[in-house]
Automatic annotation (TrEMBL):
Keywords: Signal. Residues 1-28 form the signal peptide. It comes from the Bacteria. Residues 32-91 form the PRC-barrel domain. It comes from Halomonas eurihalina. InterPro entries: PRC-brl_dom (IPR027275), PRC_barrel-like_sf (IPR011033). This is PRC-barrel domain containing protein. Pfam families: PRC.
């Protein structure tokens, strides 16, 4: 049985979300459990040729939420890309499973929605890329936390103001009703 899945679902270091491939072109139910260890060294295929591997998985990169951020693809000397490693974001690949019922024989292959030339245009996995990506993701995480806190404060303040105005309106209506009642009894 063969399955394909985008790896942008939440995982723990040894788990990957997946979809079961029913035919060559139909994606179905999630498979549920994947091994990161077995994904390492999986063959990688370009969009244009699903028969000849253009590299292999060197590393799986996770974000702060333990979701797959990207894969590091080792292109070796294939396709004149040089002996380089490229970072491919999660939205650009799927994983196919073979022998998924046997821990001893499980195999994965990674299928890119990129051709070989587009793979060569992906960022290289270097210390510079690592440090920039780490800093950018940390800043995005920080901005998200600050944005959420700010949104909460704005919502809380607006709700408080609305409740104060509603309370004032009710108090005024009550006073007018009392005045009308007092006038009617005189």
């Amino acid at each position: 049985m063969t399955s394909r899945t985008p790896l942008n679902t939440a995982i723990r270091p040894v788990l990957f979300g997946a979809s079961l491939l029913l035919s060559a072109s139909a994606i179905a139910a999630p498979e549920g459990l994947y091994s990161a260890n077995e994904l390492l060294d999986a063959d990688v295929y370009a969009k244009s040729d699903s028969t000849e591997a253009i590299g292999e998985v060197e590393d799986v990169l996770l974000d702060n939420d333990m979701r797959v951020h990207s894969l590091v693809i080792d292109a070796g000397d294939l396709l004149d890309l040089g002996d380089k490693q490229y970072v491919v974001d999660a939205e650009h690949f799927t994983v196919e499973t073979r022998n998924g019922d046997s821990l001893e024989n499980i195999e994965y292959s990674v299928h890119l929605d990129l051709d070989a030339q587009a793979l060569g245009e992906q960022p290289e996995y270097t210390d510079t890329w690592w440090n920039q990506a780490k800093d950018n993701l940390q800043q995005a995480w920080s901005d998200t936390k600050e944005g959420a806190a700010s949104a909460w404060e704005t919502t809380r303040s607006a709700t408080s103001d609305a409740l104060d105005k509603a309370g004032d309106a009710l108090k005024s209506a009550g006073e007018k009703t009392q005045q009308a009642a007092d006038d009617a009894t005189q």
